[in-house]
Amino acid sequence: MLEYVRVFLVGGLICVLAQILIDKTAMTGARILVSYVVLGVILSGIGVYQRVVDFGGAGATVPIVGFGHALAEGTKKAVDETGLLGALTGGLTGTAAGITAAVVFAFLWSLMFKSRQK
Is the pLDDT score of 116 beyond 80? Predict the structure, then answer.
């Protein structure tokens, strides 16, 4: 039960911070998303975000900051295994499952519903 509370608190805090940015700044949604991905990469690079993941579980890995974390972790692992070439391939390898799921579900959604230009 406590694990669910931690997941909710971490994921909720990430979302609250984004909502505050939307309400109190002139940042667009796209800039906030990019900022969150970059923040995930930076915090993973300095070793802070792994502690957040250990505490918050899916509350830290599911939001877009977790995507930045996955990019950084995949890149670090690939560089350790293959050297400098891993810096080019590791991010995609680390996030391949999430990217594939997004593409597949978007395709299935487009088959189920009639999409059209606005």
Answer: no
